[in-house]
Design brief:
About 40% of the residues are buried. A two-stranded antiparallel sheet has the order 1-2. The protein has a single domain, classed as ABC transporter involved in vitamin B12 uptake, BtuC (Orthogonal Bundle). With about 350 residues, it is mainly alpha-helical. The chain has 17 helices and 2 strands. The longest helix is centred in the middle third of the chain and has 27 residues.
């Protein structure tokens, strides 16, 4: 039987997606829908990055390389193909995700043998290598001239909606994977690796396999978003398809919302990306919006250094403890966090329970 708090979390999640589902009909303006499309893109990528950088504690700085792989895969496949309904590229997204995931297994088999700062350096090196290849493999990528894709045959009045709903579906998948990870042996293994990798290996966690699976799923989702972006833009250039700022943005969004939480990356993306896009529309091509964008991040992180979700959790816990002291009786579920992080259980207890369930 599900607890009232678990039921409340389910209702909250369903309500969130229902609200997002009706937004395109409430806001018909194209510039607002464009902001929503890009916000969903970064929400998906932040949730995907959280599997590696949050739950496993491996700060990947190379995810933009897989974003570019997804973008070029989409454009290369449909460059000279005629689109009939316009939905064919969306059906191709699982293939892109699978391809990027297989590439991620090969990359991860090397990169995941390093840790912390060295891992970050290895992954950001991958990013710049991929960008260099995109510029120089002219026979494949057309180099700096860019690569085009067939124009989507969607009505102009509702052009953004198909992209919006596909991204909404990808967000549901990414959050569903995160939710499952937080409540499974896989998630407990990731938490143990983040806490102490050597101890995790000592108590029987298959460290390399768990890390590779998390990395592969993470980059596969990121590549699928890259495919949607390429189809949405219609024409891509290497400097935008493999852009270090993409990685920086998803890392900042995850840290802002709270790593190793379900809602943290989504909240971070909603705050930062909508702010960035709105300021870009307001301030135009001067790029002064980047300064305002950075200030928003700094202010929030100074006030909530652990991220928004963990800070709110701590605040609610302190209030509950105060109410217990004042009233003498704890409320049902008073010590349960709103969005329990993956590292909640102790390391030994977590893995013992996990091995028992396994």
């Amino acid at each position: 039987m599900r607890s009232p708090r678990s039921l409340l979390g389910t209702v909250r999640g369903v309500g969130f997606f229902v609200v997002l589902g009706v937004l395109p009909w409430l806001t018909p303006a194209h510039w607002i829908l464009n902001i929503l499309v890009f916000t969903l893109m970064y929400a998906v990528m932040s949730s995907a990055w959280n599997l590696v950088g949050g739950f496993a504690g491996y700060p990947s700085l190379g995810h933009a390389a897989f974003f570019g792989i997804g973008a070029y895969s989409m454009n290369l496949w449909f460059e000279h193909r005629t689109l009939h309904s316009g939905y064919e590229p969306f059906l191709f997204l699982p293939v892109i995700g699978l391809f990027a995931g297989l590439v991620g297994l090969g990359v991860g088999a090397i990169a995941m043998r390093t840790r912390a700062d060295v891992f970050a350096i290895v992954t950001i090196t991958l990013l710049f290598v991929t960008q260099t290849l995109a510029f120089n493999l002219r026979g494949l990528t057309h180099g700096a001239q860019g690569l085009s894709i067939a124009v989507p045959p969607f009505p102009l009045a509702t052009f953004e909606r198909p992209f919006y709903f596909v991204l909404l579906g990808l967000l549901a998948v990414a959050m569903g994977i995160s939710y499952g990870a937080m409540r499974s042996k896989f998630g407990l293994s990731l938490a143990a690796i983040r806490a102490d990798e050597d101890k995790a290996r000592g108590i029987g966690v298959r460290v390399l396999g768990v890390k590779l699976l998390a990395f592969s799923v993470s980059v596969g989702l990121t590549a699928m978003v890259g495919g949607v972006w390429a189809y949405y833009e219609g024409y891509i250039y290497p400097q935008f398809a493999v852009d270090p700022l993409v990685t920086i943005a998803i890392v900042l969004m995850t840290f802002l919302g709270g790593r190793a939480t379900l809602w943290g990356p989504v909240i971070g993306a909603l705050l930062l990306e909508t702010t960035q896009q709105t300021l870009a529309y307001t301030l135009g091509g001067s790029q002064f919006y980047l300064i305002a964008y950075a200030l928003v991040f700094l202010v929030v992180m100074l006030l909530m250094p652990q991220g928004i979700v963990p800070s709110v959790q701590d605040l609610l816990r302190r209030r509950r403890r105060r109410s217990v002291v004042d009233g003498g009786e704890p409320a049902p579920g008073a010590d349960d966090p709103v969005d329990p992080p993956a590292h909640s259980p102790g390391l030994g207890q977590s893995m013992t329970a996990a091995n028992g369930r396994g």
